[in-house]
Amino acid sequence: MRLGHLQPLYDRPDRPGSWTGVCFATSRPDESAAQERERAARQAIRRLEGQGAGRATCRAVHRPYEGGAD
Hints:
Layout: H1 7-10, H2 33-50, H3 55-62
Helix pairs in contact: 2-3
């Protein structure tokens, strides 16, 4: 995956720090899609936690998938 176009978002001397990015494929329109996205978000959060991500970062990743909303 080419991510060079995102460099201006994280390569800024005025905003140093750790950065986290998570990408999900969300194009499945069937009735199980919401549950699958929720499961993928939980898996991503577990990986982020294992890599030292803080609670606020993990909440931000999960927020769009709370309640199975599309």
